Structure formats: structure tokens, C-alpha cells
Amino acid sequence: xxxxxxxxxxxxxxxxxxxxMDEVSNDMDDIKEGLMDRGNPKAGLSQDSVYSVHMAxxxxxxxxxxxxxMLMSRESDYYKNLALALERIDKEEFGxxxxxxxxxxxxxxxxxxxxxxxxxxxxxxxxxxx
Length: 130
Ligand SMILES: [Zn+2]
What we know:
single chain, 72% helix, 130 residues, Four Helix Bundle (Hemerythrin (Met), subunit A), mainly alpha
């Protein structure tokens, strides 16, 4: 019989993944708000100060925008990976190394729920890539 995590353990993993997905989606909301704020000059400033503030911050603004977009795509990648991890829980493939078929240690699966390789195989993989 192939090794896999028990249903009870999988349930625990699912809860922890759903928690993480919640966090990530909150983070994405925050980033989105940040992106939208940037597009609106602050109300209540006189035309002159809006102009000078805008000129002084133009460089920083586009840098911030870029940073936010990068954050956004990183978060959404992470979110997709978590969703994939959930699918693997459904298929009861979660926590099983795709290369050697051994169980991946629990701490690692909590830390990196989208891991598909055990530490040993991952290390070997890295060495092969060199
Ligand atoms: Zn392995």
C-alpha cells in the first residue's frame, strides 16, 4: 500500500492551508487598495501643492507601483499553489514526494504546503541542476 497521510492529518493540513489562503487574499486586498490609492491625488490640497507633491513623488510612485505589482503577482502565485495543495489533499496525494514516493515530513508540509518533493529529493534536484 502506498504511503500517505491519514485522513485526520489531511484535515489538519486543509485547515492550515485555508487559513493561509485567507491571509493571502487579505494581503492581496491590501495591495489592491494601495494600488488604487496611488491613482487618486489626495483631496483637500491646493492645486499647487498637488502639482509639486506629484512632481517630487513621481519616481517613488512608479517604483511603489511596480513593487506592488510584483507583490501582487507573487501573492497570487502563492494563492494558486495553495489551491493546488488543496486539490492534492482531495486526491490524497498531499505530502507524498513525487520522486521517491515517501512521506514528506509534517513540519515541512505546514511550512510549505505546496511542496511536492521531500528535502532529500529537492536537494538532489538542486545538485543536478548545477
Ligand atoms: Zn523524495
